[in-house]
Amino acid sequence: MSVIIEISVVLICIYWGLKMGGLGVGLAGGFGLAVLTLGLGLEPSAPAIDVILIIMSVVTAASTMQAAGGMEWLVHHAGNLMRRHPKYINVLAPIITWCMTIMAGTGYTVFSTLPVISEVAKEIGERPSRPLSAAVVASQVAISGSPISAAMAAMISIMEPAGVSFLQIMAICLPASFIAAMVAAFVASRQGCELKDDVVYQQIQKEDKQHVTSMTKDIDPKAKYSVFLFALATCAIVLLCCYSIATTCFSKWRYHDDTRHHYCKYVCRCMSNGAYV
Question: How far apart are CA 114 and CA 119, in angstroms?
Answer without folding.
Answer: 9
